[in-house]
Design goal:
alpha+beta; 603 residues; four-stranded antiparallel sheet; 19 helices; 18 strands; globular; Chitinase A, domain 3
């Protein structure tokens, strides 16, 4: 199956319009020429719910054919893989109409693939560069698949052990520490009976709210806890203390107070999820062995002090803020600024090159904020340094192992080649033929003027404080007229980062402090919030409030141009597809789409 992500030029190339989905296909042959679907079994084989309906054996196998374009079949397995790898916001709903639409988009993609291959536009220098970079990345990915993922063995006994833990609920207490040595010392004293748990909580925990409750965090379920943490906690007998466990909040000790059974989920429906959890736990151990081989090949060495210095200037990529509705995960996509003299610092050296801080920043900034790893530690930053330095060596090792002939590598490289050809086809035959006049833009603005209004927006400052006294001191400084920007700048000059200036739209209801900054504070007002789960506080000051306004034509015309360009290119693309579909024998069975087991194959 030729699969590739949605083209950046227009999303219509993979997720076409609903009208296209319903259009009759020229040249469509009789449905009977496709293999008949297997009949529904009379006796249900399972009562599991899949796609919100009982699984009675009605779902088609992955090899069942849904459509053909000449001699190319589109199977159920290919449909499911393409559905879950496509650009999520543009994937149709999984109801019958949405599935039929997606099947039509796959047929249209196959038509475009064939047309682009027939034209075979010569590749230029930039195309060859794209293919070279993609080939190196594809070989790296195949090496990881074959050497790491395929080498992970998971026994049925491991799965059943986790499944048995999920039939329990555990009442827990915890102590949160700032460093491992203190946590290990306290654990040893607890285990030997030289220190009472309640005394340890009051003396050491960073979670202020848990001091008065002996660290009690209530009853916890095993599902969603992760393999390492779950195994460490759900194997404890009442009264036992866990080993020291580390996460982004710090270092934890847990004590089991009591346990009780809970009704388990269906084993078969849980098995794949548990196997994924175990695999995710084992991946780093297998990956590190591969990394060690690559580091030796590349003669990779690190400047540890430079990495530690640079990592210390990055914020935590993710944090948890306790709000009225519960915990909220806050992403911090900011990247610190470095002086030009610092960007030349070398973080690592390898055979054939170096990784400077400047090169690191260039690579890191190209990553989508949601996918950026945490690099505020030596280990996190070193992993990204490895990614930069070792990628050519991964591809080299893949070739040495013959993986450039691996079917997965050939498919990944072939997919990118097809995508590049279709991009050229689209640019030459669709995008280059579209032009929007100023008169059209003006008319669209006048016809849709009511829609060009901005959302209310706020700008606010957040400044963290370790104690309530520190937060109150900050609040008094702000109330006396000191500017939040000045406080944060002074901290930054001292090498401290404890806050930021942020903007938020009224439509972003899920973000931290949304109710506070939109409903409770007025511009200039500040308030102390906290404590959070670690006992910390924050001062929030609303700096400005923009109630929203009518956009002028000049402000809106770039958006209007994008809208009209998209409308015209979609229409032209549809015309192109209508002409080209007549050249092929196309057969489809949209009546089968609700018999597809639409479950993400990666889980």
């Amino acid at each position: 199956m030729r699969q590739y992500p949605v083209l950046p030029l227009t999303l219509a190339l993979l997720a076409l319009t609903a009208a296209l989905a319903g259009a009759p296909m020229a040249g469509a042959g009789p449905a009977a020429t496709l293999p008949a679907a297997p009949p529904d079994p009379e006796t249900p084989v399972s009562r599991k719910l899949l796609n919100d309906v009982p699984d009675t054996g009605q779902f088609l196998p992955d090899t069942a054919v849904l459509a053909r374009v000449d001699d190319h079949p589109i199977t159920v397995g290919e449909f499911v893989a393409a559905y879950f790898s496509a650009y999520a916001p543009d994937v149709p709903r999984p109801d019958s109409a949405g599935r039929a639409e997606f099947l039509q988009s796959m047929i249209s993609k196959e038509v475009l693939d064939r047309l682009a291959a027939a034209i075979d536009r010569p590749f230029g220098f930039e195309d060859r560069l794209v293919m070279r970079e993609h080939t190196e990345r594809a070989l790296s990915n195949v090496l990881f698949q074959r050497v790491v993922l395929d080498s992970i063995q998971i026994g049925e006994d491991e799965v059943r052990q986790v499944y048995a833990q999920e039939a329990l609920q555990v009442h827990l207490r915890q102590i949160l520490f700032a460093d491992r040595p203190t946590a290990e010392t306290v654990r040893a004293q607890l285990v030997r009976g030289k220190l009472k748990w309640s005394d340890a909580v009051r003396r050491y925990t960073l979670a202020n709210r848990e001091r008065s409750a002996d660290g009690d965090i209530g009853w916890k379920m095993r599902i969603g806890m992760g393999y390492e943490l779950g195994n460490a906690i759900f194997t404890l007998a009442p009264g036992q203390v866990s080993r020291v466990l580390e996460d982004e909040d710090g270092f934890h000790l847990f004590q089991c107070v009591e346990r009780k059974p809970v009704p388990p989920l269906d084993y078969e429906s849980s098995r794949r999820r548990i196997m994924t959890e175990i695999q995710q736990y084992k991946i780093p151990f297998h990956a590190e062995r591969l990394q060690a081989v690559l580091r030796r090949q590349a003669a990779l060495t690190y400047d540890t002090s430079a990495i530690v210095w640079a990592a210390g200037r990055f914020p935590s990529a993710r944090s948890v803020v306790q709000e009225e509705g519960g915990p909220n995960i806050v992403l911090d996509p900011s990247v610190p600024e470095f002086a030009s003299t610092d960007t030349s610092r070398v973080l690592a050296r390898y055979r054939g090159g170096t990784v400077s801080l400047g090169r690191f920043l260039s690579h890191f900034n190209q990553l989508q904020p949601l996918t950026r790893p945490a690099v505020n530690s030596f280990g996190g930053m070193r992993q990204v340094v490895d990614d930069i330095a070792l990628e050519p060596y991964r591809a080299q090792l893949a070739r040495e192992k013959g993986l450039d002939k691996d079917p997965l590598a050939l498919r990944l490289i072939g997919d990118r080649l097809e995508r590049l050809r279709v991009e050229h086809l689209y640019q030459d035959s669709v995008a280059s033929k579209v032009w929007v006049s100023s008169e059209e833009r003006r008319k669209y603005y006048e016809d849709h003027k009511v829609g060009f209004i901005t959302y209310p927006k706020v700008r606010y400052a957040t400044i963290a404080a370790a104690t309530k006294e520190g937060a109150d001191s900050l609040l008094r400084r702000l109330e006396s007229g000191e500017r939040a920007e000045a406080i944060l700048l002074a901290d930054s000059l001292l090498g401290v980062r404890r806050g930021s200036i942020q903007e938020q739209l009224q439509s972003e209801e899920g973000r931290a402090f949304h109710k506070l900054v939109f409903e409770e504070l007025k511009p200039g007002q500040a308030v102390v919030v906290g404590p959070d789960r670690r006992g910390g506080f924050a001062v929030i000051q609303l700096l400005s409030y923009d109630p929203g306004h009518q956009l002028s034509f000049e402000e809106a015309q770039h958006t209007i141009d994008d809208i009209l360009q998209r409308e015209k290119t979609d229409a032209r693309l549809e015309e192109l597809l209508e002409r080209e579909r007549a050249r092929y024998r196309i057969e489809a069975r949209p009546e089968l789409v609700m018999r597809i087991r639409l479950v993400d194959p990666s889980y």
